[in-house]
Amino acid sequence: STQASVLGTSSSSFPSSHAKIANPKDTPYFVDNEFRLSATTEFIDVHDPATNELVSKVPKMTESELEEVLQAAGSAFPAWKGMSTIARQQIMFRFVSLIREHWDRLAAVITLEQGKTLADSKGDVLRGLQVAEAACAGPEYMKGEVLEVAKDMETRTYREPLGVVSVICPFNFPAMIPLWCIPIATITGNTVVLKPSERAPGAAMILMELAEKAGFPNGVINVVHGAHDTVNYLLDAPSIKAISFVGSNQAGEYIFEKGSASGKRVQANLGAKNHAVVLPDSDKDSTLEAITAAAFGAAGQRCMALSALILVGETKHWLQELVERAKGLRVDGGFEPDADLGPVVTPQSKLRINKLVASAESEGATILLDGRGFQHKKYANGNWVAPTIICDVNPTMQCYKEEIFGPVLVCLQANSLDDAICLINANPYGNGTAIFTSSGVSAERFRKNIEAGQVGVNVPIPVPLPMFSFTGNKRSVAGGGANTFYGKPGVSFYTQLKTVTSKWAGRDSQPGKMALSMPT
Ligand code: NAD
């Protein structure tokens, strides 16, 4: 189709290798069900992290183009809100089946732009698709409540959409994060302006092609591009009623404050430092396997990656075995069939990670496994960082205090479970944590006392499926985590409750004295 050719990919041919792209295209924006090219002269280059070859250019859209998109989303709202939830559900069913049909293509563009392995990109799409599948139950979620509250009088509630909502996305889950939001925002009757990450826009663009095919009316789902200026434009726009943000603390805390100050609803999921606690009674092999996968999978660029390990008591002697497992991982281009982890997203990211590892060294930690010098023969220009394990870390070190967001595991020791719990609770982040133990008593003590939003017991990355909600805590969420993503809280975030009390009765034949006081 012409739309697919604008995107430079089509369902029959999509990238399957890190080969240089002959003719990198400008990424279009999407408005009124059309891909349009921006007239801007300023672009952000998107590179394949395995080769640093140019993949596409993302426009820093002009203000008049941004205005055009907001107008379209605003104009589409009344009719979309007026459509029955059951009619919207029919469109969602088609959207779901199209995403499944184009699963491989979505995964391929993620691997090309973001670097993660193809198998992991497929997981990225699936986790988002599952939210869209759950959103098909929209009519159930939209049902109100009713009660006869007095004689001839009833109160009932209606859920109503907010209007135009905006979604601002990070680079690390290019399909999942847009799909955490689009399905729930639209099934509940809102229209959407999505800003993908300027580093990995391709999956969002394919999702737009599928949304149009599924039958979303013009203007219901739109995509804008850019970086800080585009976000500021969205924050200032009075027509935008809510903002869903996922990304770093630096951006998210600013967006939360500015958005909330202008009366918008804001949900914001931020950075993390997720700890795993290993008790001596855990099953050694399965524990070390789970930790290796959760620390180094996706090159550590997951907000739920296990990036800090607390070895309790005797388990400090397990470190060498962990190093051997990490050494066995294959660092390779994401399209290579046996790759365990790909490159990190940009050269700047690699530089930042290497600096944090160097800081650990200068602050007295021990680099047990050093992935900084990793060279790839076939992809010599990639942003490579191989698995890195740092031990003798203490909580005052920079490598512990900062989110590294790379394939780097920092290791600490504790004498007891309670010491481990104190350590984790003192950390400002609270996205997720995991304990490995065969003792139900220890697991229960951990579960009750730990200050983290998502807890795994012998499960390394306990991201809740869409029938639950993503429940980060502390500095991993803005605003105390009141507005969580997807699940029933996601429906609450994107809707306003209206409570109507009605009285349907004739006037009493013998009216009493008119009462001006509150009924008691
Ligand atoms: P980022 O904050 O750099 O970018 C996220 C979005 O914000 C992008 O669309 C970007 O254009 C915009 N942005 C960046 N800086 C801005 C600024 N100063 N003003 C306005 N807009 C700005 O994040 P990233 O590097 O793309 O993603 C990685 C981060 O996201 C990590 O910290 C990770 O932990 C976090 N993350 C959290 C979750 C979660 O659910 N808690 C999930 C995924 C990623």
Automatic annotation (TrEMBL):
Q: What is the name listed in the Swiss-Prot or TrEMBL entry for this protein?
A: methylmalonate-semialdehyde dehydrogenase (CoA acylating)
What taxonomic ancestry is recorded? Eukaryota, Fungi, Dikarya, Ascomycota, Pezizomycotina
Q: Which GO terms describe its cellular component?
A: mitochondrion
Membrane-spanning residues where?
none
Q: Give residue ranges for domain Aldehyde dehydrogenase.
A: 40-500
Q: Which GO terms describe its molecular function?
A: methylmalonate-semialdehyde dehydrogenase (acylating, NAD) activity
Its keywords, alphabetically, are:
NAD, Oxidoreductase
Q: Does the keyword NAD apply?
A: yes
One record GO biological process: thymine catabolic process
Instruction: Kindly give the NCBIfam families that the UniProt entry links to this protein.
Output: MMSDH (TIGR01722)
* EC nos: 1.2.1.27
